[in-house]
Specification:
Layout lengths: L7 E2 L3 E2 L48 E5 L8 E6 L4 H10 L22 E4 L3 E2 L5 E10 L3 E11 L2 E11 L4 E11 L1 H4 L3 E10 L5 E12 L6
């Protein structure tokens, strides 16, 4: 019930991510199989219980895997606090051993919302040629948040990001809302072979929540 490689993120932050294995999952009560693994964030990773299965390791400060105290029904969620300073984020990445993945050159004392924001990735999932997908998710907070479906394929002999779909968290408010969009990644970029979901929060500084991330194959339609 619950739901941030890329090379240059935000205003210039360099990020290096390790290629994740392709994952898929299905839930019996859904008409279409769900592609995102553990999009409700309830299951812990078998090898590292400090992170949700199928997702990257949260740093525990800016990005937390926790319960929403105001909504018991949502269970585990992803909580982002973009009021944390750049310096505090870099120190947290050092403490948690994540500097190989996240870093901010010359971090300042300002809120990370004012520059890079915070991102959180799912593991990689395979893309079927010609397939249309629907991404859906719950979010809570102001309108300064988005969900990206980032798609990768071989380009000049290297795996690179070749296509992305951005879905803003509209109607931001104190309560949870549900957003959705459709996409057909290989329509514009036939070389695309895998994709990841990225949760992203930025300005204004504050608390943002994500839950129930779904990505499902649907009959081909108008998704771009």
């Amino acid at each position: 019930m619950t739901f941030m490689k890329t090379f240059c993120h935000g205003a210039g932050i360099w990020i290096t991510l390790i290629t994740a294995s392709l994952t898929s999952s299905a839930r019996a009560d859904d008409a279409a199989p769900l592609i995102v693994s553990n999009g409700n964030f309830e299951a812990a990773d078998a090898k590292d219980p400090s992170k949700p299965a199928g997702w990257f390791k949260p740093d525990g400060l800016g990005v937390q895997w926790t319960n929403d105290p105001d909504s018991v029904a949502h269970g585990k969620c992803i909580r982002m606090d973009t009021s944390v300073s750049e310096k505090a984020m870099v120190e947290q990445w050092k403490r948690t051993g994540l500097t190989n993945f996240w870093d901010i050159p010359k971090p300042a004392g300002n809120a990370v919302a004012e520059t890079y924001g915070l991102s959180y990735y799912s593991d990689a999932m395979s893309v079927k040629s010609g397939q249309t997908y629907r991404v859906m998710f719950d979010c809570k907070g102001s309108s300064g948040a988005k969900v990206w479906v980032r798609c990768y394929g071989l380009f000049q002999g290297e795996m690179r990001r070749r296509y992305e779909k951005v879905v803003p968290c509209k109607d931001g408010c104190a309560g949870w809302t549900t957003q959705s969009a459709e996409l057909t990644p290989t329509r514009a970029r036939p070389e695309v072979s895998e994709m990841k979901v990225m949760l992203y929060a930025y300005y204004p500084p504050g608390i943002y929540w994500f839950d129930n991330v779904r990505l499902e194959a649907i009959p081909s339609g108008g998704g771009n």
